[in-house]
Specification:
alpha/beta, 7-stranded parallel sheet, 23% helix
Length: 417
């Protein structure tokens, strides 16, 4: 019998795609999962003691901003968001555009240890400095023909289209750009991922738009598989209307029309809004962290006035596992939370035959988490503080069979209550 490269021993293996939830071992050979079961007598080049560790399919972060340097301070190092945070795949949401996808392929996809994919921006400028310049995101800033052509040429890394539906843009040009984004997504048969919640101030001379009216115009444009982001946003124009209720048309879209929801945590997250949305029966399909240079502490970056005044500034410490812990705290069960970062995003990517599972023969993409028990403080960006009793922390991951320690500076320290 061939000697294994690695045995991950004694962990609690949880794989929602196969229904497995048991303490067992996983064998890795030549970058793939070769055996699952009692491997205590199997010879291996290395052994990883996973006692008291959750062993999951490699986690997929569906909302990253990792096009470092090209998107200014907004973009983070992909491997610090990815493998060194226990995450094996990160999807950049709207960083690369039809003009910059070549750089994304060369500098990220081909060189990062993390698997880096993207939802291409509907806008020519992509995620330039995190959308600080709203006038670049109007009808004159899109070119559907070019974007469609480039997306079709790069379908191995382009897995969707990113656009925005928010009242600042609505005050300038209505929903024309959203219609164009949908045109692009239809032409390449990919999901449209729509940001909800105000990004930009309304145009000075324009009447403040009715956020509810925006939602009512947006939803009929969406098809099954399209995605709405930031359901728990504290900003106007999100899932919750001015009366504090979830929009009925959004409930219809999610429950009956196949529209999917991504958490898109970022600096948007509010415990109060999250409870309202969850209580209305809206459970996110995927859980994207939405980390970027203005809502995490970046090593060696000066905390200058420009950063402090940024509209996307966040001060509450978080990452993907903190976002997972918050959902657990809010009553979502562990299996469902794990599905949001494994099998469900694999379905969004149409890569469920490759990712999101620990089936034999799959790439050895495996995330390792610790479940801490105690009393810990969680904070949202509205200033709300809550005490949870279970906190997930990354211990590391295997990507294609290679181990990476979870030593990223973006992994927050646990705050004991």
């Amino acid at each position: 019998m061939m000697k294994l490269d690695t045995v991950i021993a004694g962990g609690r293996v949880i794989d929602p795609s196969t229904g497995v939830d048991e303490c067992t071992d996983i064998g890795i050979l030549e970058g793939k999962i070769s055996e699952i079961g009692d491997l205590s007598k199997r010879e291996a080049a290395s052994y990883f003691d996973a006692t008291d560790t959750l062993v999951l399919p490699g986690m997929i972060d569906t909302h990253g901003h990792i096009y470092q340097h090209v998107t200014g301070k907004f973009g983070l190092d992909p491997d610090l968001v990815g493998v060194h945070s226990g995450v094996t795949t990160v999807i950049d949401q709207g960083g690369p555009s039809c003009m910059t996808i070549g750089g994304f392929r060369h500098y990220l996809y081909e060189k990062s240890k993390t698997r880096t994919l993207c939802f291409i921006s509907a806008y020519l400028v992509g995620g330039l400095e995190g959308h600080l310049y709203p006038d670049l995101y109007g009808p004159c800033g899109v070119n559907p023909e070019h974007t469609i052509r480039v997306a079709k040429e790069n379908l191995d890394i382009v897995k969707g289209v990113k656009a925005h539906a928010e009242i600042g843009g609505q005050s300038r040009w209505g929903i024309e750009v959203i219609r164009t984004g949908k045109e692009i997504a239809k032409a390449v048969d990919l999901p449209l991922y729509i940001h909800l919640g105000q990004l930009w101030p309304t145009k000075d001379s324009a009447e403040i738009p009715d956020a509810d009216e925006l939602i009512e115009k947006l939803v009929p444009l969406m098809d099954p598989g399209d995605m709405l982001a930031h359901p728990f946003t504290r900003h106007p124009g999100g899932f919750v209307n001015q009366h504090g209720d979830v929009h009925p048309i959004l409930l219809e879209a999610v429950h009956n029309n196949g529209v999917r929801v991504d958490v898109g945590h970022g600096s948007h997250f509010s415990f109060d809004v999250a409870r309202r949305v969850l209580d209305a029966g809206v459970v996110p399909f995927t859980l994207g962290a939405d980390m970027h240079g203005y809502n995490v502490s970046v090593p060696s970056e000066e905390d200058d006035e420009a950063r402090k005044s940024n509209p996307f500034l966040g001060v509450a410490p978080f990452n993907l596992t903190i976002a997972m812990s918050e959902l657990l705290h809010l009553g979502v069960d562990l299996k469902s939370v794990i599905s949001m970062v494994t099998e469900n995003p694999a379905k969004v990517l149409k890569m469920e035959d490759e990712l999101g599972s620990l089936k034999l023969g799959r790439k050895a993409d495996i995330s390792l988490l610790k479940m801490e028990n105690g009393r810990f403080t969680l904070t949202d960006n509205s200033g709300g503080k809550e005490t949870c009793e279970k906190l997930l922390m990354p211990a590391g991951c295997f990507k294609d069979g290679n181990f990476f320690e979870a030593n990223s500076p973006f992994v927050p320290e646990k705050i004991v209550a």
